[in-house]
Automatic annotation (TrEMBL):
InterPro entries: Gas-vesicle_GvpA-like, GvpA, GvpA-like_CS. Its main location: other. Keywords: Gas vesicle. Belongs to the gas vesicle GvpA family. This is Gas vesicle protein. It comes from the Bacteria. It is found in: Gas vesicle. It comes from Streptomyces spinosisporus.
């Protein structure tokens, strides 16, 4: 007495379109998933983790005021350049405070090269 295993239904033409429609709708509207994890021992809170997940398109995220990736040097080449320029200016200021004569010499050399 053998029981034939039930085979999953093959994916039809409509299922791919449905998935695409659902994904487009989620990215267009956005979805928020929120939750908290608390670990207690004898009514003493040991650990609380708050999880927040937003799934949306870049355009929708910008509409909501979320654009942190544009200022994160790890994700944006413009932010990386801005950070390097700021750091360079700070280092030049520190060097000028430590050795004012060095800054004057550096300016004279750059003028001679021009």
């Amino acid at each position: 007495m053998t029981m034939a295993g039930r085979m999953p239904e093959p994916y039809g033409q409509g299922s791919g379109a449905n998935l695409a429609d659902i994904l487009e709708r989620v990215l267009d509207k956005g979805i928020v998933i929120a939750g908290d994890i608390r670990i207690n021992l004898l009514d003493i809170e040991l650990l609380t983790i708050k999880l927040r997940l937003i799934v949306a398109s870049v355009d929708k995220a910008k509409e909501m005021g979320i654009d942190w990736w544009e200022t994160d040097p790890a994700l944006s080449s413009r932010a990386r350049r801005d950070e390097l320029a700021r750091e360079n200016a700070e280092l030049r200021e520190r060097l000028a405070r430590l050795d004012p004569d060095h800054e004057l010499e550096a300016r004279e050399e750059s003028e001679e090269e021009s």
